[in-house]
Amino acid sequence: MNALQKTLAIIALLVLVSQTIRHTYLLWVEPRGSVLDKYDQPLKNEITSATSLDELVRRYEPLRKQVDSARAEAAKAGNKIGYEQERGMEPFKSESALHEAITDWEQKSKEIHGLRFYWFIGLAISAIGFLIYKTFNRWLGFTLMIAGFAEFIYWTSPTFLGGGTREFDRLLVNKLGYSVISLVLLLAVIFTLDIFSQKGEHSTL
């Protein structure tokens, strides 16, 4: 069992350390500017500076009305506005950008909620597993601890899509914080259970 514990502890350490570093990079180190930003201003500034979903929705509503009105006028005139045309025309371009920002904000809010809920579920499972490991059955307790830390690792894993809103930054902050706490808990379990000890290397339960 000791060899299995060491192997899984090393894998968990590698994953948590690497994703903690990645969260830190995305949050504070990664360049976010682009030479194309000047062509997207001031809309991009409006999206990145929005402090709430309601603020984005307030900016989106008049654009949506303009888009609906433009489509209705085009339909009356017998013209059809194609997708490629909309991508480069106003108000379609701005409406699409804000629509995407709102969708992204909502998705990131759901991720934050799921992260917090399942992380604490993982914490409860890990705590129960630790108690069972120390007092009742090592295999059962260790299995539960694996399940708990699997929840930690999965829900603090990197987010590859999205960005450009403050809710994305808030998600990164949450993932970074919970990754650090998970790493500290893993180290505590390793030292408490003396997993990397050389004693009893060849012993069996």
Account of the 3D structure:
- This protein has 205 residues and is mostly helical.
- The protein has a domain at 2-51 and 102-192.
- Helix content is 77%, strand content 0%.
- The protein is built from 8 helices and no strands.
- It is elongated, with a radius of gyration of 24 Å.
- It starts with a helix and ends in a 13-residue tail after the last helix.
- 22% of the residues are buried.
Keyword list:
single chain, 205 residues, mainly alpha, 8 helices
**What composes the largest sheet?**
none
Structural class: mainly alpha
Using only C-alpha atoms, the radius of gyration works out to: 24 Å
List the total number of helices: 8
Number of strands: 0
**Helix-strand string:** HHHHHHHH
Contiguous runs where pLDDT drops below 50 for at least 5 residues: none
**Kindly state the mean pLDDT as a whole number?**
87
Helix content: over 70%
Span of the ends, CA to CA:
7 Å
Shape: elongated
Strand proportion, as a percent range, falls in under 5%
Summarize the helices and strands and which ones pair or pack.
Layout: H1 2-29, H2 37-40, H3 43-49, H4 53-76, H5 83-88, H6 92-135, H7 138-155, H8 166-192
Helix pairs in contact: 1-7, 1-8, 4-6, 6-7, 6-8, 7-8
Summarize the structure.
The protein has 205 residues and is mainly α. The protein has helices at 2-29, 37-40, 43-49, 53-76, 83-88, 92-135, 138-155, 166-192. α6 runs antiparallel to α7.
